[in-house]
Amino acid sequence: MPVIGPWHAGTLRPSASGGQPSGPPGPNAQPYTRQGSADWCTKISHSLGTGDGIHFAIVDANTDRLLGTVGLKKTDWRGLVSEIGYSVAPWARGRGIAAEATRTIGHWLMVDHGFQRMELKAATGNLASQWTALKACLQREGIMRNAGFIHAGRVDLVLFTLTPDDLKSQFDHDQSRANTADHR
Ligand SMILES: CC(C)(COP(=O)(O)OP(=O)(O)OC[C@H]1O[C@@H](n2cnc3c(N)ncnc32)[C@H](O)[C@@H]1OP(=O)(O)O)[C@@H](O)C(=O)NCCC(=O)NCCS
C-alpha cells in the first residue's frame, strides 16, 4: 500500500529503492548524483516547504520501498492556489499511484488548509499524466499554448484544476454509489 511522507536521508537507501539507481524520479531531471540525491532528501525538498511548496516521497508501507514523488509548488498564498506535480518510479507504474496521491494531496490542501484551487499542468503529449489528473477528479480547463518546456523543447500544456466544489461532487458521487451498493 502506498503512503505519503516527508523525504529523509534514508528514503533513497538501496533497500528502500529496491536496489534501483537512487534519485527522486522525475520527468525532466538529469541523472542524480549521490550528493544531489542526498541534498534533495535532507535539504531541498524541505526548503521548498517554507514558501513555494512542499514535497513528499511516496513509499510502500510494507517494504519502505520508494515508489514516487508528489508535491506542491508555485503556491499563491493570497489567492489560495497551488500547483501539484508527481512522478512514479518506473518499477511502480501501472497501479494508479499518482492519481491516488493526487486525490490525497487535493483533499489535504482544500479540506485541511482551506485552499480554493489546485492546478496540474501536463504536456499535451503526456497522456499518462492527463489520465492521472482525470482519475483524480481534476477538471480539464484548456490548453496553455507554448507554456512548458521538456527535453525536446517547448510544448503546449493542458491545464487541469481541482476546486472545493469538485471535491464535494466527488463525495456526493461516492455516497450515492455506496448507498446503491447497500441496497443490492
Ligand atoms: C504520469 C505518471 C506519474 C503516472 O504514473 P502511474 O500513477 O503509475 O499511472 P498509471 O501507469 O497507473 O496510468 C494512469 C492512467 O494513464 C493511462 N496511461 C498510462 N500510460 C499511458 C500512455 N502512454 N498513453 C495513454 N494512456 C496511458 C493508464 O492506462 C491509466 O489509465 P487506466 O487506469 O484507466 O488504465 C508516470 O507515468 C510518470 O511518472 N511519468 C513521468 C513523470 C511525469 O510525466 N509526471 C507528470 C508531469 S505533469
UniProtKB/TrEMBL annotation:
One protein family per Pfam: Acetyltransf_3
Transmembrane regions listed in the UniProt entry: none
Annotated ranges, domain N-acetyltransferase: 1-174
Annotated region (Disordered), positions in chain: 1-35
Ranges in coiled-coil conformation: none
PROSITE patterns: GNAT (PS51186)
Name of the protein this chain belongs to: N-acetyltransferase domain-containing protein
UniProt source species: Micromonospora coerulea
Source species taxonomy: Bacteria, Bacillati, Actinomycetota, Actinomycetes, Micromonosporales
